[in-house]
Recover the amino acids of this structure.
């Protein structure tokens, strides 16, 4: 059975150089999509680009031509406003034609402002209202266990999002039920809408919180692909408890004007910023 | 009365059976039975498995029961995930907390995602009794009725509860069902089958239609007896499927009897009274009177006293019937 599954898997890309190149392209996609749509969430999409590329291209088990493959690993974008990053990755994996990216947020588009599973292949469930994705991931993890599936459930959380109480309800549940098929990643870019997380509502000490809730907890540089891959790999062997990686990132990563500035949370680049971004991201 | 409509077997009976059953108890027992027939059914609760009666399932199917603790938002999210993973989750807690605390989780994930989650919430209405206003959900049906994809059910007796629970397990999609504490007289016999979007006529009559929901179906039946004593023939309809509502039946009753009373253990805004008024004002306006709670919260007391206090008795329904008949 497992052999059969392995035979159908899309082969992962493990070469860090290639993954870095993919992340650069995904960042370009994000800038391009937002520039065209005139709105969307820039900073938190750019901060998550390396994490999503590492997850989708190197770690998650999936079949490129079969998004509903029952044995697939699942991904929930709990910080749903990071949709542009997810759409860019899904399009590069062939879940839908790349031309669709140009329709982001338009009337009739398959790419809604926040993820909607009813119209976008590869999206598992609607998200966008923060704080809810980890509970959904837990339910999927319980179902996988009952169904005797080896699939793992990945969920990307925002750090600001972690101010929601439901995240901690779900953190308790995952540990209580020993959900070692859950792999959470926190995009720790230290910014939310109104400013720094430390000023709006402090989260620290964050890693000890997750540890205290019974989670296997790691910290990485969320833009260092080899580090991310290593951390993901080391979590595969953890049994009896869920794992979380706190990924230290820079909001707006990749384009100097956008980096580490709360003001680029939810805006599209203007003409000048767009040109600068293309230059810095090395558009051909 | 067009034959098209479902007329309950109850009509054939002289008097209702003397047995009484509570909807939450019948839900709990049925769920435990369904557990054997449907290996994919899983049940979640939020530390109220005794009150909601999911404990019967929990005792038999330990590995398919998940107590999520006192965390209703997580309860709904986890149920959603289980549905995504191919399971048939039944999530239970009190109606107030299911639809109040976790409304947004239900809206964003279960309804928007059109997931196969069954939310069965106990303790709806003032008949919760002594626990008082904080625990008497008077808004739950309104909160669920406004959600796309959601089916909203309020069984009126034991057989209907069993039939609806069974139906919900087989149906693909989100369902909200409200159960209650009170033991209610049995209306239907065990051959009763629930059909989505269909109400049932419990008593024929041409002068007025009394449309009830849950506990208030019984008040409507009693009111019809009271009115019969005064020579008024009241039709009684159980609109236990609040969404999708049997609008053909509602319009037919308005056309054939010319006056309507709605009765529910809920705010008059947002649930049965609203739904019927909306349909009739668009399709067939007739005098309507809504029985329910008006801009008030519940209070502590014995259920019977509270029903009286809030104007939810058979006498109140009968009085409303006379008013609408006078306005014809
Ligand atoms: C429940 C909820 N409240 C508020 C918002 C509005 N909102 C969208 S993004 C955001 C900030 C999120 O910050 P963080 O999780 O740190 O995301 P990132 O910085 O990675 O973009 C807020 C408040 C929302 N989407 N959902």
């Amino acid at each position: 059975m497992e052999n059969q599954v392995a035979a159908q898997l899309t082969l992962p890309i493990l070469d860090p150089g290639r993954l870095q190149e993919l992340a650069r392209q995904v960042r370009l996609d994000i800038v391009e999509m937002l520039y065209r749509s005139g709105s969307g969430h820039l900073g938190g999409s750019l901060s998550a680009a390396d994490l999503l590329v590492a997850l989708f291209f190197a770690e998650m088990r999936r079949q490129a031509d079969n998004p509903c493959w029952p044995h697939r690993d699942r991904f929930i974008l709990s910080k749903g406003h990071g949709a542009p990053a997810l759409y860019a990755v899904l399009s590069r994996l062939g879940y839908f034609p790349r031309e669709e990216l140009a329709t982001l947020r338009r009337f009739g588009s398959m790419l809604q402002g926040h993820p909607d599973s009813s119209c976008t292949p590869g999206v598992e469930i609607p998200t966008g209202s923060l704080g809810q994705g980890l509970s959904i991931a837990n339910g999927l993890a319980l179902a996988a266990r009952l169904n005797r599936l080896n699939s793992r459930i990945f969920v990307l959380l925002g750090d600001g999002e972690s101010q929601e109480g439901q995240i901690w309800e779900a953190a308790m549940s995952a540990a209580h039920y020993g959900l070692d098929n859950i792999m959470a990643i926190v995009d720790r870019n230290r910014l939310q809408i109104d400013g720094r997380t430390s000023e709006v509502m402090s989260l620290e000490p964050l890693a000890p919180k997750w540890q205290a809730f019974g989670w296997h907890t790691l910290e990485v540089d969320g833009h260092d692909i080899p580090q991310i891959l290593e951390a993901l790999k080391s979590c595969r062997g953890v049994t009896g408890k869920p794992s979380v990686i706190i990924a230290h990132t820079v909001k707006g990563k990749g384009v100097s004007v956008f980096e580490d500035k709360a003001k680029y949370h939810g805006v599209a680049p203007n003409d000048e910023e767009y040109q600068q971004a293309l230059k810095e991201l090395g558009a051909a | 009365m067009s034959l098209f409509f479902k007329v309950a077997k109850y009509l054939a009976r002289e008097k209702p059976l003397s047995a009484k059953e509570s909807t939450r108890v019948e839900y709990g027992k049925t769920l435990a039975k369904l557990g054997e027939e449907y290996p994919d059914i899983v049940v979640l609760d939020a530390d109220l498995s005794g009150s909601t009666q999911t404990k019967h399932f929990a005792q038999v199917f330990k590995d398919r029961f998940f107590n999520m603790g006192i965390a209703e938002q997580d309860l709904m999210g986890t149920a959603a995930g289980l549905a995504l993973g191919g399971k048939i989750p039944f999530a239970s807690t009190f109606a107030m907390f299911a639809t109040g605390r976790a409304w947004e989780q239900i809206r964003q994930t279960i309804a928007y995602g059109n997931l196969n989650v069954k939310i069965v919430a106990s303790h709806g209405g003032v008949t919760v009794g002594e626990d008082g206003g904080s625990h008497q959900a008077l808004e739950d049906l309104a909160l669920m009725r406004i959600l796309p994809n959601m089916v909203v059910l309020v069984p009126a007796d034991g057989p209907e509860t069993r039939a609806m629970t069974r139906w919900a397990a087989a149906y693909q999609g989100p369902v909200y069902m409200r159960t209650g504490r009170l033991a209610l007289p049995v209306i239907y016999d065990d051959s009763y089958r629930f059909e989505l979007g269909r109400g049932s006529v419990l008593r024929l009559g041409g002068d007025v239609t009394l449309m009830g929901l849950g506990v208030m179906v019984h008040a409507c039946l009693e009111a019809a007896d009271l009115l019969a004593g005064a020579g008024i023939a009241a039709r009684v309809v159980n609109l236990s499927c609040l969404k999708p509502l049997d609008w053909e039946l509602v319009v037919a009753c308005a056309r054939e009897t010319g006056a309507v009373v709605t009765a529910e253990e809920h705010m008059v805004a947002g649930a049965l009274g609203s739904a019927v008024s909306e349909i009739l004002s668009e399709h067939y306006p007739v005098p309507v009177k809504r029985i329910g709670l008006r801009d008030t919260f519940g209070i502590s007391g014995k259920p019977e006293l509270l029903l009286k206090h809030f104007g939810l008795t058979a006498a109140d329904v009968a009085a409303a019937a006379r008013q609408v008949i006078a306005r014809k």
